[in-house]
Amino acid sequence: MSNLAITVTVQLFAVYQEVYKVPKLVLTLPPQTPVSQVLEHCIEEHPELERWRPLTHFGVNLQFVPPETPLSNGDEVVLIPPVSGG
Prior knowledge:
The protein has helices at 14-20, 36-45; strands spanning 6-11, 24-29, 57-60, 63-65, 76-80. The chain is of the alpha+beta class. A hairpin with a 2-residue loop joins strand 3 and strand 4. The chain is globular. It starts with 5 loop residues before the first strand and ends in a 6-residue tail after the last strand. Belongs to the MoaD family.
């Protein structure tokens, strides 16, 4: 069954946490989903996050990664929005 879906934890910070009003999400996704799809999921649920799409970077398991990085079961994802002054 593990080849049908993976579960990832998404840590939310700054604008993402403000919009969701929780510090993290747990998502079930198809295996090998690129990390960029986590941002797409968030934008689908909260279209006001669209403006942050070009400014958001991705982290998986405490490493900065490119948007096309595939996710694995148990990964911890961080959406890294711009911070004040940068």
